[in-house]
Amino acid sequence: MRLLESRADLSAWQSETLSGGHSIGFVPTMGCLHDGHLSLVRTAAEENGRALASIFVNPAQFAEGEDYDRYPRTLEADMALLEQSGCDALFYPRESDIYPEGFQSIIAVEPLSSELCGAARPGHFQGVATVVAILLNLTMPTRCYLGLKDYQQFTILRRMVQDLAMPYTLVGMPTVREADGLAMSSRNRYLQGAEREQAAALYRGLSAARSAWSNGERDPQRLEATARAALTEAGIERIDYVAARHPLTLAPWQSADPIAPVVLMAAHVGAARLIDNLRLDDAAA
């Protein structure tokens, strides 16, 4: 696996790859990789001539007081996992490669970026959209693979690519879960002792809402209340939101909508802010 530590390194690798007639499958990450990330890399390798990952802990998507400084940085272990998963190259840029001196631009996808997680983390999705746009334009992939655990993020990035006529295909991949249903996340390592068991309540709540949907419940407030109940029963007190939304637009879901909702939630367990979601017509998730 090639380590690309600058724009020049990336450009040289791209030229070699494209001159060889290979497509590029790209997986952007912030590192501290788990099997959710690696499933994206494996799919990128299977579906493209070359698989490229990036690791960049993006300061623009962290607000003051969030966990930028303590976000886990595990480059050596990440490189080994990427190589085992079939990754051909890793783009590991300096901050100056992403945000050169004098950089002033921001991409804001509104109003999608200001609700749900955006309401709890003002500016977060502007930072995400901006860095992903930069990474897409630098890497120029055939396909970009993103996990649907970050459902709102994927919806925002899909909207950005459509609105700005960017020539990239975004591929949303299913959430990878632990045995008890907890969505894999780099922030799960913040969970201590009993908090790990408590965190599994997020998936229990989503599963309860799916069961209610399967049994004929169509009232969005009741579906939300069913999912929220599992969190409160587990003793989770700080809940940012539990929301039933249209799966394509993230508008509040209405009983008359002809498509099943996605229920999204965010809650704090110990030092970890956890997010999860479930399409209620998805029996396999």
Automatic annotation (TrEMBL):
ATP binds at residues 30-37, 147-150, 176, 184-187. It comes from the Bacteria. It is an enzyme of class 6 (ligase). The active site is at residue 37. GO terms for cellular component: cytosol. GO terms for molecular function: ATP binding; pantoate-beta-alanine ligase activity. Keywords: ATP-binding, Cytoplasm, Ligase, Nucleotide-binding, Pantothenate biosynthesis. InterPro entries: Pantoate_ligase (IPR003721), Pantoate_ligase_C (IPR042176), Rossmann-like_a/b/a_fold (IPR014729). The reaction proceeds by a bi uni uni bi ping pong mechanism. This is Pantothenate synthetase. It comes from Magnetofaba australis IT-1.
